[in-house]
Amino acid sequence: MSTTSDLLRRWRVGAVLAAATVGVAVPAALAAARAPRWWLWIASESTPMTWLQSVVLLGCASLALLHAALIDLQGPVPSVAAAPGRQRGLWFLIAAGFGELALDERFAMHERLRDRVLAPRNIRVPFADWMAPGDFILLAVLLVGLFALPALYRQLRADRTGVVLFGLGLLFTVTALLADSFDPAQMSLAVERLEQTLEECVELCAGLSYLTALLLPLLTRLAAPESP
User: Alpha carbon of 67 to those of 83, 152, 157: distances in Å?
Assistant: First the structure.
């Protein structure tokens, strides 16, 4: 008979494998479905790819809320010195952040702000000539999110795999944001399609990494009361 630790290990491995499979199989399936115009369901806005990304980000927000609920139901994370209220508040903040990103991904809010407000006024970052006007919005969001990173690390550090996955998600995020900052007007149409397709794939991998990073500690906490 399988023990709780064996079952927990299977769920954790299964979660990582499922995320990796989705990250590879879904973009490949979307490209194959629209071949030879393989980029249509990936590179553009309001496509199956952006819908999936919004679902993944909404899943991250939901898991963050579950972390907050477990602080009330099972007590705070033992390895974290912060008061329960501060721990719970952090998870509410993380949930709000992922929720906002999910809405932005689904409804292209920052693209609308860029194209309708910032770009027509030629508002850009000084000394960043490679960036199109208005393409600094998500970079600013990333900088704000980094302020919460040390506190979030303290919440996750007991789960080394979760920390590695979250770090991988950050690496994917920075890569996607840097790619998004390049001005497409300076690219050929073929290069632009390839660059935007790869960017969306990297964004999906980032979201899946965050989702798995938040799920693994939850599985461990849920299994803890039944552990011998």
Answer: 15, 11, 14
Q: Flag whether 210 is in a domain.
A: yes
Nearest to 53 by CA among 18, 96, 98: 98
User: According to the model, what pLDDT value does residue 178 have?
Assistant: 80
Domain assignment present for 58:
yes
Determine the structural domain holding residue 214 and report its residue range.
4-223
What mean pLDDT is predicted for residues 122-143? 62
70 φ, ψ (degrees, to nearest 5):
-70, -25
Do the beta carbons of residue 39 and residue 197 sit within 8 Å?
yes
What's the number of domains the chain is made of?
Answer: 1
In angstroms, the CA 228 to CA 216 distance is: 20
128: alpha, beta or left? (left if phi > 0; alpha if psi -120 to 50): beta
Question: What is Dmax (Cα atoms) for the chain?
Answer: 67
Nearest to 165 by CA among 51, 65, 20: 20
Residue 154 lies in a domain: yes
| Alpha helices (H) along 48-185 | 48-74, 84-107, 109-113, 137-146, 149-156, 160-181
pLDDT value of residue 228: 40
Dihedral-angle region of residue 133 (phi above 0 means left; psi in -120 to 50 means alpha; beta otherwise): beta
Q: Give, to the nearest 10 degrees, the angle between helix 4-33 and helix 48-74.
A: 160
Domain contains 228 = no
Average of per-residue pLDDT across 109-134: 60
Mean pLDDT of 3-16: 92
- For residue 178, give the amino acid letter: L
Q: How confident is the model at residue 11 (pLDDT cuts 50, 70, 90)?
A: very high
Is the pLDDT at 80 greater than 80? The verdict is no
